[in-house]
Each structure stands twice: as C-alpha cells, then as structure tokens.
Fold this protein.
Amino acid sequence: MSKRVSFLGILLGINQIFLFFSSIIPTNRLFFLGISSLPISLVIIENGFKSGLLFYTASALLSIVLIPNKIYLIPYILFFGIYGLIKYLIEKNRNLIIEYSLKFLSFNIIFFIGYSIIKNFIFVKINIIIILISQVFFLAYDYAYGLFINYYYEKIKGKMGL
C-alpha cells in the first residue's frame, strides 16, 4: 500500500512540474500540457478508474493553488487532465469507428466549451482552418498517448512492483 501511495505522490509531483512549466515557458505550452496528462493514465492502469478520477481532481485543485498563471490551467482542467479518463472509458469499446467518433465528439465538445470560456479573457477568433488543424493535432495527441500507454504496458508495468 505504501508503494502505491508513494507512486501516486511522485506522479502528482511530476504532473505539477509539467503544469508549472506550461505556465511559465512561453514556447511548448501544448507539449507540457500534453505531458502533464500522461500520469493520469498510469494511475488508471495501476489503481483503476476511480483512483484516476481522484488523481485528476487532486491535480486540478493543487494546480489552482500552485500554478501562477491560471489562464493556462483552463486547457488542462477541461481537456488534457481529463482526457486519460475519457480515453479509458471510450477504449473499452473495441470498435475503432465508434471509438474515434466518440473521441472526436468529446474533443470538439470540450474544444468549444474551452473556447467559450477563454474568449472572455482574451480575443480569439476561430475559423474553419483552426478547427481543422485542431482535429489533426488531437489525432496526433491521441496516437502519442496510445503509444505511451503501450510502452508502459510492454516495458515498465511488470517492473514497477506495485
């Protein structure tokens, strides 16, 4: 049990470090937000969905306290942080057409909710080009996320001793 708690604490610390980097480093914000979302998948793999949900909640609340530039938390809280949970639920279904339809539907709903929130703080105009580019980036993000999960299962999981 203490190994699991230590593991969760380390993952939460790593998560917060990447969120901090995303808020202070002007370049690679999306990269750091994407990387900060990966620990949630490890929590789900090792401890289950409920633990993943608690980890996401703790991560979001802790980041609100610790991260200086709160505007960069909006994408994390609305999408990057919760995507591991969404991916887990959707990928239980082994039909790729349904999986990708649900993933894109989830992404677009979250995208437009995020846009509705962010446009109140900064001027952002969205056109069809931005929407299409965001779809491509989402597909690449989902693919990379899947590669990370597969790598963890194949190379690391058995060696963790959890």
